[in-house]
TrEMBL record:
GO (cellular component) term, any one: cytosol
GO biological process: chromosome condensation
Taxonomic source organism: Desulfatitalea alkaliphila
Molecular functions (GO terms): DNA binding; structural constituent of chromatin
Superkingdom per UniProt: Bacteria
Protein name: HU family DNA-binding protein
Annotated Gene3D superfamilies: IHF-like DNA-binding proteins
PANTHER family: DNA-BINDING PROTEIN HU, DNA-BINDING PROTEIN HU-BETA
Length: 89
């Protein structure tokens, strides 16, 4: 399912495509803004989004085989909740 299909599903509940798109965009923007501030987002029964830090490491260029340094960085991480895990099984 992509974003357009998600908006269509939400539109079936809220009534209009415009309202559905605004709702989906609002949720995604809110999660993005919270993660940008290093805050965690926990949605009961669904899961949690948090920022994880990756350590700097040495990598290898697959084309040339040369070693390169990969800088440390922050990445978003999603941990599914129990209800979501149970629904998938």
């Amino acid at each position: 399912m992509n974003k357009t299909e998600l908006v269509a599903k939400v539109a079936a509940v809220v009534g209009t495509q415009k309202l559905a798109k605004e709702a989906v965009d609002c949720v995604l923007d809110t999660i993005t803004e919270a993660l940008a501030k290093d805050d965690a987002v926990q949605i009961a029964g669904f899961g949690s989004f948090k920022v994880s830090e990756r350590q700097a490491r040495t990598g290898r260029n697959p084309q040339s085989g040369a070693t390169i340094q990969i800088a440390a960085r922050k990445v978003p991480k999603f941990v599914p909740g129990k209800a979501l895990k149970d629904a998938v099984q």
